[in-house]
């Protein structure tokens, strides 16, 4: 999928180096097709890394995609420059009169807060309510998935005895659902979180359908029955080294954290981890864009 992203975005050079098809605006205008418009609310602290991870996945199917990056107006990020945000990002007030084919709401390392105590919670609630009429399908990742479950369906998170960190096996619960079309019966997913949602809360909710679960990491993949919301409690978008970087960061902060499980070869943190989830990551994003965005979105928004 050729993706149309702003000229000068640092991820552009890296995507081209990886042979990801990045389209400039002049060429995009000459294609006689209606591109998909995807807005990404990037709540992660290291925004440039997340940009690259998500753009890599959105650039792997045969449709043209226009990307808009969104950041919160009520929270100032400490890990990205103001010039980067000013150049490549916009705020909700500037796009709230637009409609989008798809949206991604990322995770955020703020699980120790109650949702209402997050300083941009009211803004996020406004955005989530806005998506009901203005976005065809929303993909929620990790804390973003927990926020959606809490706001839309009244399902709260609970704290785990220790951080869920590592690579865990998951089982597909219904292979006939389009989102998991082509998935192996068992597949790996990276997780990095301190909280979880209860399996029984998901199973008993009439508006939700569970699609993948892990004996060790719990609920992973689910969707609303109207296909409006797709929720992932893990981080399929992570690079092979992301968990290692998080582990070293936590150790440097003096946090009492354990080594990510099933991650380093022979549990040796000096060995380079392998990416054992890449194919399912691309497949999930491709299925979402095809079946839940492209096939469902109107050609012209009324």
UniProtKB/TrEMBL annotation:
It comes from Pseudogracilibacillus auburnensis. Pathway: Amino-acid biosynthesis; L-methionine biosynthesis via de novo pathway; O-acetyl-L-homoserine from L-homoserine: step 1/1. Belongs to the MetA family. The keyword Transmembrane helix does not apply. Substrate binds at residues 163, 192, 249. Its EC number is 2.3.1.31. The record marks 192 as: Important for substrate specificity. The active site is at residues 142, 235, 237. One of its GO terms (biological process) is L-methionine biosynthetic process from homoserine via O-succinyl-L-homoserine and cystathionine. This is Homoserine O-acetyltransferase. The keyword Acyltransferase applies. The gene is metAA. The record marks 111 as: Important for acyl-CoA specificity. It holds the Pfam family HTS. It catalyses: L-homoserine + acetyl-CoA = O-acetyl-L-homoserine + CoA. It is found in: Cytoplasm. Keywords: Acyltransferase, Amino-acid biosynthesis, Cytoplasm, Methionine biosynthesis, Transferase. Transfers an acetyl group from acetyl-CoA to L-homoserine, forming acetyl-L-homoserine. It comes from the Bacteria.
């Amino acid at each position: 999928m050729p993706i149309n992203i702003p000229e000068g975005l640092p991820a552009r050079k890296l995507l081209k180096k990886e042979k990801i098809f990045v389209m400039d605006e002049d060429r995009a205008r000459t294609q006689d097709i209606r591109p998909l418009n995807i807005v990404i609310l990037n709540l992660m602290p290291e925004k440039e890394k997340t940009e690259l991870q998500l753009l890599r996945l959105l650039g792997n199917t045969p449709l043209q995609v226009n990307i808009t990056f969104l950041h919160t107006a009520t929270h100032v990020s400490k890990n990205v420059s103001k010039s980067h945000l000013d150049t490549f990002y916009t705020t909700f007030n500037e796009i709230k009169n637009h409609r989008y084919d798809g949206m991604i709401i990322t995770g955020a390392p703020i699980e120790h807060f109650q949702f209402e105590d997050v300083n941009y919670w009211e803004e996020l609630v406004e955005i989530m309510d806005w998506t009901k009429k203005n976005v065809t399908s929303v993909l929620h990742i990790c804390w973003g998935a927990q926020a959606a479950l809490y706001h839309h369906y009244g399902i709260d998170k609970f704290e785990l005895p220790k951080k869920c960190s590592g690579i865990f096996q998951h089982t597909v619960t219904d292979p006939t659902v389009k989102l998991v079309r082509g998935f192996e019966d068992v597949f790996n997913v990276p997780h990095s979180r301190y909280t979880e949602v209860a399996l029984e809360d998901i199973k008993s909710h009439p508006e939700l359908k569970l699609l993948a679960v892990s004996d060790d990491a719990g609920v992973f993949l689910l969707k609303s029955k109207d296909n409006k919301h797709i929720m992932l409690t893990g981080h399929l978008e992570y690079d092979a080294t992301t968990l290692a970087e998080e582990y070293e960061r936590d150790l440097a902060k003096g946090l009492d954290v354990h080594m990510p499980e099933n991650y380093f070869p022979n549990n040796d943190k000096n060995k380079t981890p392998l990416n054992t989830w890449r194919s399912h990551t691309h497949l999930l994003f491709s299925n979402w864009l095809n079946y839940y965005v492209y096939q469902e979105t109107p050609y012209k928004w009324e």
